[in-house]
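Recall from the previous chapter that SMILES is a line notation for molecules. Here it describes fe (ii) ion.
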Amino acid sequence: MVKDLSGLEITTDSSAVVDAINSFVDQLLCVGNNAQVILKAVEADPTCAIANAQVAAFYLFAGGVALTQATSYLNAAKSYLKRANDREKLYVAAIEAWANRDIAQAIAHHEAIAIAFPRDLASVHLAQYHYRNSGNSQGMLRIAEKVFAANRDNPYMYGMLAFGLEECHRLKEAEDYGRIAIALKRDNRWAHHAVAHVLETQGRLEEGITLMESLSDTWEYGSSVFYGHLWWHTSLYYLDIENFAKVLEIYDTRIWGRAKKDNGREQINAIALLLRLELRGVDVGSRWQELAAYLQPRLHEHVLAFLDLQYIYALARGGKDDWAAQMLESMQTHAEKVLPYARRTWVEVGVPAARGMIAYARGDWKSAIAQLEPVLPDLYSTGGSHAQRDLFEQIYLDALIRDRQYHKALNVLEKRNAARGNIPAIQRELANTYSQLGHIDEAHQASQLALELSQRYQKVEQTV
Ligand SMILES: [Fe+2]
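With both inputs in hand, we obtain:
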């Protein structure tokens, strides 16, 4: 029996296993590009249950074809459970539940680990991942708070707490903890991400660009998906200051241009940006067609409804109507047979929203509105972050405007304006909507503000 860097006991006699597990946990928490280091642990001791479970987790994160590999390592972990300690047994059970897509059960095991072994931050990381994918922001925050006192010495703890706070709209605390995390460890990419979300939500565009670009050298050592995601966040600020050339450059060189194109999460980074560019009226050329060609492996995958909504839009928009139809049918089948805790999300939210996304891609605004409007309040349950899911509200709003439903559009726009009053596109849409509704003074005011903001941001473009 030996201990890892956090003082947690590992059932092995091999120091190489401990080294590999220490490195893997570090890679997991900093979202590094060398998580495969965990393979060294099972090479050193194939009978170590938790090492096998960590390898299974590594492959589960990868998804797709890697799921088969996850199963074989999980089976190995289970076969060596007799000698394992209580934490290891719980961890193997959590990974098994994840492999079986029983996320509620996986979370229950991680919660049990958090109580008995609060130093196990790899377990907390997985719990937060599952909570986020289930739209449970409170859960994300609570588990971080639960283990915080036991991990004050760990820089990653602050970033984990920060993102939980951000998703619970406690933005000031989120930023404070995120910045502490970065001060303690500059390449704390998870903390960069948490602060990026705060700055995005608060419309602090110039600050966002400055902060993210000042840290972007450390993203080179991040996982490829997260590299793309952090640049995606950076591009959102550029999108709002309307430097579209820069956004396209980021898309071509930092996101899709560098992505592992068969990876679902990398595809999502690209889809989520192309869609936002088009919502701003930017011509994205043949990028949809190029991207959609890689999406066939996603048709029957159904990892999260939140992801499927974007894949299916990209298929419809990229000219793959057959694949889009197949995927919708497959989503419906999946919705009927998914585990009970997730059924409502898939049946009542995911599938109607997917129909709405296809309708929007085809320019059928009325149908897009009819499908999306009732499910918008529940879309949080499909997964993703607030910033990511904002896309669906933007699509709904765009459909309303195109369908000339200005009263409804005004409700959405005024809410968006109250949250972020310094975005030129919002002011321009407000001006147009006020004007259509005959509110001439308000229209003039919004139009003036749009102009002033545009001029201000043009100055930013010249300095960055
Ligand atoms: Fe994010």
